[in-house]
Write the structure tokens for this entry.
Amino acid sequence: MDIRLLHPSETPPYELLLLADPSRRIIDEYLERGECFLAEENSMIIGVYVLLPTRPETIELVNITVVETYQGKGFGKKMIFHAIEQARSKAYKTIEVGTGNSSLPQLALYQKCGFRMTGVDSGFFIRHYEEEIWENGIQCRDMVRLEMDLS
Ligand code: COA
């Protein structure tokens, strides 16, 4: 798998980005403020993630997605480690990620990659999304915040 930056002339892979975040408005805001990386296997786009500077010395991993037929094969984990290395090489001290209270595989994955839980943004998904989101039989209401110290 190769990972590269989205070229300014390329259309972002919205179909993929929307799997991680149902709001096109929020995705466009992230793309505007962040850097979008594409993961390719045999010249096919199989994954995407965005790195978004949030505060001085802190960057957030958002919108990480792997094409459904490629999920569960280790690509997501490799992309997370790539994002961590990118953040480190740019001298950020902290990398953050946030996911829904109902996103159980994602909560497992981020912790397996070394992120630690730091807090809960209670009611985040109720405040920012018009439609209800349900996963694993659980309503997605709160954003679990996780971070990793890079210093
Ligand atoms: N309990 C414990 N571990 C679990 C788990 C569970 N319920 N569900 C998944 N995992 C673990 C797997 O065992 C694996 O870890 P391992 O390698 O130590 O066995 C890891 O999570 C999955 O790794 P990987 O195969 O690299 O993930 P992936 O390529 O499927 O990518 C996502 C992960 C989340 C990017 C992908 O599933 C995806 O695109 N989902 C839809 C979009 C999305 O939800 N994005 C995240 C928004 S916060």
About this structure: The longest strand covers residues 44-55. Residues 19-20, 64-66, 71-77, 99, 103-106, 108-109, 112 surround coenzyme A (CB under 6 Å). The beta strands are 2-5, 35-41, 44-55, 58-66, 94-100, 116-121, 134-135, 138-139, 143-149. The CA atoms of residues 83 and 148 lie 12 Å apart.
